[in-house]
């Protein structure tokens, strides 16, 4: 069963099949030009639900904005989407359905690298360009495909800046935990290589399954190895659980940082004061002063009742990049759109879009935030910093 939405409708995460349509004021339903259909799957259930919903809300906001401005190639834009249930296999099946049955014109990739790895094979099969707003695993772009284009930063670069700062501060012993998924494996491998290149000792390098709930043994290993810097290539639930276990074992390294989790408001809501001092590696934060970042966050809060995060910004940016490519191509012809995506340089809401011959991002920077006084604050790079980074305070001094 299909459902038609306007921008005034709230997204119902329980729906298995969604047709998300944004109709601009003043545009008749019987407009003589058929709409441009943008297809996507989003994780509205399963392990990636929070991140998938953020991506989809950002993408919906872009559709709302583009139609409010008038049109794209003289046509309104609609978003056709399905809940992929955080499953790579489901996502791939649904992208094939979007292409075969829904006849979409353009594709935006799903949240998460493992889903995008599967979905990109479908885009390649049908030779339709796909823009990924949030996937970062290099394996996606090492397949030799011509139709997958990256907005986010490659995963192996996520923690490079943080490690450089840590080494300059005299930290020598690094412990790395990572969820066994596509993106987080790449982040962890890149962090280990960078730490070793900097002359740091990686004293712990351990993986855990996505279903892990008990982190006691992993944190015990970090404590026994006397890790000064603890890094987690993780998502929301596991990053929260690792911090809780650090506190339970009264283990206080000099610094603690994660991917994904700390950039979300829910991280602070769930940990409360225990989030204080935790670092987050994020491809976007409102304070990064990227184009229209504060305006985007303000309008996002008006629509959805909470602040934007890197996933919602990534969804919006994927739409921006697609729009720019179509406008420059002056056509929906796939080869012309693909050529623009491969060659153009564009400043999106999350920063510079510029890719190499594989479609992998080469123009974007990474940001580091820290939870201070109950809020996320940008601490690096220094030229954008809202506050100075603070040491991770021992649990028994809080």
Automatic annotation (TrEMBL):
Keywords linked to the UniProt accession: Amino-acid transport, Signal, Transport
One annotated GO biological process: amino acid transport
Every Leucine-binding protein domain range: 35-374
InterPro entries: BCAA_transport, Leu-bd, Leu_Ile_Val-bd, Peripla_BP_I
Stretch forming the signal peptide: 1-28
PANTHER family, A to Z: ABC TRANSPORTER SUBSTRATE-BINDING PROTEIN (PTHR30483:SF37), LEUCINE-SPECIFIC-BINDING PROTEIN (PTHR30483)
UniProt record similarity statement: Belongs to the leucine-binding protein family.
Name of the protein in its database record: Leucine-binding protein domain-containing protein
Native organism: Aestuariirhabdus litorea
């Amino acid at each position: 069963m299909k459902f038609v939405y306007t921008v005034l409708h709230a997204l119902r995460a329980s729906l298995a099949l969604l047709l998300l349509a944004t109709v601009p004021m003043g545009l008749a339903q019987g407009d003589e030009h058929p709409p441009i259909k943008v297809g996507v799957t989003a994780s509205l259930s399963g392990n990636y639900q929070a991140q998938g919903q953020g991506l989809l809300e950002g993408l919906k906001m872009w559709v709302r904005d583009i139609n409010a401005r008038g049109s794209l190639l003289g046509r309104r834009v609609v978003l056709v989407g399905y809940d992929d249930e955080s499953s790579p296999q489901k996502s791939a099946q649904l992208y094939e359905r979007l292409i075969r049955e829904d006849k979409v014109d353009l594709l935006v990739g799903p949240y998460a690298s493992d889903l995008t790895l599967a979905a990109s094979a479908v885009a390649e099969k049908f030779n339709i360009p796909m823009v990924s707003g949030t996937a970062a695993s290099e394996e996606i772009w090492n397949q030799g495909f011509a139709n997958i284009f990256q907005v986010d930063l490659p995963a192996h670069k996520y923690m490079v800046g943080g490690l450089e700062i840590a080494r300059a501060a005299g930290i020598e012993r690094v412990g790395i935990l990572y969820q066994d998924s596509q993106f987080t494996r790449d982040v962890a491998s890149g962090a280990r290589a960078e730490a070793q290149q900097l002359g740091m000792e990686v004293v712990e390098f351990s993986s855990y399954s996505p279903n892990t709930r008990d982190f006691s043994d992993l944190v015990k290993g970090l404590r026994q190895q006397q890790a000064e810097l603890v890094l987690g290539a993780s998502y929301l639930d596991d990053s929260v659980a690792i911090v809780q276990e650090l506190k339970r074992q009264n283990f206080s390294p000099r610094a603690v940082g994660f991917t994904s989790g700390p950039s979300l408001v829910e991280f602070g809501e769930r940990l409360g004061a225990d989030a204080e001092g935790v670092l987050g590696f994020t491809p976007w934060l409102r304070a990064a002063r990227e184009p229209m970042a504060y305006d985007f966050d303000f309008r996002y809060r008006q629509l959805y009742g909470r602040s934007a995060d890197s996933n919602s910004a990534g969804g919006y940016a994927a739409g921006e990049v697609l729009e720019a490519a179509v406008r420059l191509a002056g056509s929906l012809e796939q080869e012309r759109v693909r050529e623009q995506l491969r060659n153009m340089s564009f400043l999106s809401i999350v920063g510079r879009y510029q890719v190499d011959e594989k479609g992998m991002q080469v123009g974007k920077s990474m940001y580091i935030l820290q939870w201070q006084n109950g809020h996320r604050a940008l601490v690096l790079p220094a030229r954008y910093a809202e506050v100075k980074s603070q040491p991770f305070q021992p649990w028994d001094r809080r």
